[in-house]
Design brief:
The protein has 118 residues and is mostly beta strands. The chain is built from one helix and six strands; from the N terminus they run αββββββ.
Length: 118
């Protein structure tokens, strides 16, 4: 009888922690401020609402729970600031997008760095 030998190899899988999970857990307890710099509560955790949208669950100043759509968060740092994300201002005519130099009106190229103007 022919014997077949099965060699089993164990491939070590490196254990990696996903980056976003650590970032999400680090917001727990941060103060949450609205766009008018008024404290509205503290961050509790990140969750998913019934529409499958990511939300930030907070404990409001009055002790009740609330949720804030993730796209309403403007900035996360030492505190969480709500409001619309800062949109890039429309470029001024003649202002170079690369170096910021204000060129003469009607210029096609930047007088400072030579980049093509929009």
């Amino acid at each position: 009888p022919v014997q077949t030998q099965i060699k089993s190899e164990t491939i070590a899988q490196p254990s990696t922690q996903p980056g976003p999970a650590t970032a999400i857990s680090s917001i727990e307890g941060l103060a949450v401020y609205d766009e008018n710099a008024k404290k509205i509560g503290n961050a509790k955790q990140v969750g998913i609402d019934s529409n499958q949208s990511v939300v930030l669950l907070i404990i409001k100043n009055d002790g009740t729970e609330g949720s804030i759509p993730w796209n309403s968060i403007r900035k996360v740092g030492d505190v969480i600031l709500l409001g619309n994300p800062i949109s890039a201002q429309s470029p001024q005519p003649g202002k170079c997008a690369k170096c910021g130099f204000s060129n003469k009106e009607g210029s096609k190229f930047c007088e400072e760095c030579g980049s093509k103007l929009q």
